[in-house]
Amino acid sequence: MYGWIWRHLPGNAWVRALISLVLVLAIVFVLFQYVFPWAEPLLPFGDVTVDEGMAGPR
Amino acid sequence: MARTDQDERRGELPDAASGRRRPRRGRIAAAVGILGELLITAGVIMALFVVYSLWWTNVLADREAKKQGDRVRRQWAQQEGPGRLDTKDGIGFLHVPAMDNGEVLVKKGTSTATLNDGVAGYYTKPVKSAMPWDKKGNVTLAAHRDGHGAKFHNIDKLGKGDAIVFETRDTWYVYKVFAELPETSKYNVGVLSPVPKGSGKKKAGRYITLSTCTPVYTSLHRYIVWGELVRTEKVDADRTPPKELR
């Protein structure tokens, strides 16, 4: 998978490394900005209140 | 054999120890390789999620809480003399020296959206919180243990006799911790009662309840700390903090 991406990037090794870095940063940005905020409420790590089960706030 | 060696030289660096390794992998080997890469990717994403949860949400929440806190302080400065207190943006600040986390803005409600801004919220349900200035009742607060400001992260550092100070525009309310519940069910709403169940108190009084989740990094149980009002102090012109905070 990564090997395939590497082979299909243009330029020499340095250019490819640079493009790879940009791609990685873009993916991290998308994860932090959109994916994780979406996933977080679905995971049971952030509930701090006491409540009566279903009805209460998470 | 010779052909294989040539291919190796042209392809990736040949592994000196295993000269027989063929550069062109079989279909199964390729599938296993892709599976391995996917698993590694999943691991990296999970690690990034931990970084997000325990660091990045704190950065965002602290920034937001600072902004909202500053706004409340500006409003307080503008409202001269006594008057109807505007509580939409927050009713005051919580100072807990034992938690060593500065001031925590207290806002209405304990919804995820509210608490994620790095503030503490007072309960509106299932049991409505009292206000510090009420004659009797239980001021019930919740905040995050980890991530999103982690304002109650050090709740376990609180012990009996430690001060909890609630600052409103005009008054410092000084509470002293008298009981705690290091682990209780998340359905134990009795802890929020006007006379909190499990605290040992039988008579109505002016109590404060801090609630968050425990153990750290999970939401399995709830950690409760109760305080009782010992005195109030008028806020002076310089907002000199009470001696507990000095």
From TrEMBL, chain A:
Protein name per its UniProtKB record: Uncharacterized protein
Organism: Streptomyces sparsogenes DSM 40356
Keyword Transmembrane appears in the UniProt entry: yes
Keywords: Membrane, Transmembrane, Transmembrane helix
Listed transmembrane segments: 12-36
Domain of life: Bacteria
UniProtKB/TrEMBL annotation, chain B:
SUPFAM superfamilies xref list: Sortase
GO function terms (MF aspect): hydrolase activity
Region (Disordered) residue spans: 1-22
InterPro entries the record matches: Sortase, Sortase_Class_E, Sortase_dom-sf, Sortase_E
Active-site residues from the entry: H144 (proton donor/acceptor), C213 (acyl-thioester intermediate)
Pfam family, one: Sortase
NCBIfam families noted in UniProt: class_E_sortase (NF033747), sortase_fam (TIGR01076)
Keyword terms, alphabetized: Hydrolase, Membrane, Transmembrane, Transmembrane helix
Organism field: Streptomyces sparsogenes DSM 40356
Membrane-traversing stretches: 28-56
Basic and acidic residues composition bias: residue spans: 1-13
Identification of the protein by name: Integral membrane protein
